[in-house]
Amino acid sequence: MLRVTKPGLQSTLQGAPRIGVRHFGVPASGPADTLSMALANRLVGNAPWDTCLEITFGGFAASIEADCSLAIAGAAFEVRAAGRPLPAHETLHVKAGCALSISPFKRGARAYLAVRSGFRALKAFGSTSTYLPAGLGGYRGRALQAGDALEAEGDPRSVQTLATPERLRLSFTGSFALRACASAEFELLDESSQHALFRNRFIAGRQATRMGVALTGPTLELHSDGMMKSAPVFPGTIQCPESGTPIVLLCDAQTTGGYPRIAHIARCDRHLLGQIRPGDSIKLLRRTPEDAARALIEKEAYFQDWLDVVPSESPPIL
Amino acid sequence: VCSELTLKRIADDVFEIDVDGPATAQAIAHRLREPGMAEDVVPGLRSVAVRLHPARVPNIETWLSAVSQRTEPLQTDSATVELVVHYGGEHGPDLSQVCEALDLSADAFIEMHIGAKHTVDMMGFTPGFAYLSGLEEGIQIPRLGTPRPRVAAGSLGISSGYTGLYALDGPGGWPLIGRTENVLFSPDQRDPFLLAPGRQVRFRAA
To answer: I need a labelling partner for B98 at 20 to 30 A (CA). Which of A25, A191, B2, B88 fits?
Structure first.
């Protein structure tokens, strides 16, 4: 249905996160930006977790081998089919034989290409999501390479043409303000570092992967002997090793770790972590857990009319 | 009995219960997992974390406290697994530093490590990674200040009284003492994990 000609830096198939298997050491995976993937799926009439192609930093190209309906959401890009520019935030009906190309992203780190009925993918631990470190799920458990052919799960054509409502289109600027809660070992930070964590701006480090992003800038001081007993960590946990450079964990986060857990990105803003590029600016906004939970409910309500944010049979999108 | 049980909310959607040790953590986690209310219940070595959607589970704290107060132990599979290890050299690049910190010769350290009876206290970190207790109290080695970007599958790390078995290639922060030939994670098998909490491990030098 679609043959990859240029995979870009890293393209993988992603579906729902793996839920309920962290105690085996199996991470969640799934899209780094869950909301953008759900928006792409919505435009082709799919369920929010149907398997999409996650494209990192753009520069992706493919040849279309069957008539199909596609949608792309996430980072800022230009998309062309057979050399013609196509609109973003809309269902795209493309013909067999045309070449599809997505420019390098101007802002944001990841985009999601959805096809009507979803991409066919391997399942592992109940999910099609690719987890590269263990070769689980997706397309043979690996990132896509030029020449790989992807198939749709069902009929890849949709008769509907949809557009994402203006007010629900996400845009990214390279400057992120993320709500966050103090976490289990916050008190290990000395007093001035406790303030610095929520007052200063951090710069995303050069390694911005699906496992985590280092927050460089202010170095934090903490009282730790490096012998903390390993404790559970999650996507959104901010760990601080003794070096004083915190790391925020993403969807492929390990399940336990021994570095102090100083803060935790609020669930409502966790999807934004997937759009952080190296060099982007990050400010943490301190919230109590109760306030962060209320913000989650508000954000869900904001998207609920358009997206099934809290589907009954599958994990919530946020 | 957990008379002074501490329940902390460590994120808007994560609660953590501090416990006295890994066996209690496994038992409480097992019970919390049963009703299917939580998205993930993850035991640590001294805690259990529960992740759930904060608006979809009513009276979270009451439920967590009630389940955590119950104390019946969990029945685990205590079968012994033998693992063949290459100690030191390229397989365990930190062995000499570890020996220096403990003031032991490499041979004395290896003999001590082989002689010890190791128990899987928990699985975690990445698929198949196992935390093994069994080293003496005095074997306290701090983690690396900055994690290594790549540790080979099968590597044995030690840190704060534990031996950690890396099942996959990937980043890691524990000082490395050796590497096993045994495969710890086989995703295509019906039971993909060689180890599980409660299992005993004996090491044998290659």
So the answer is: A25
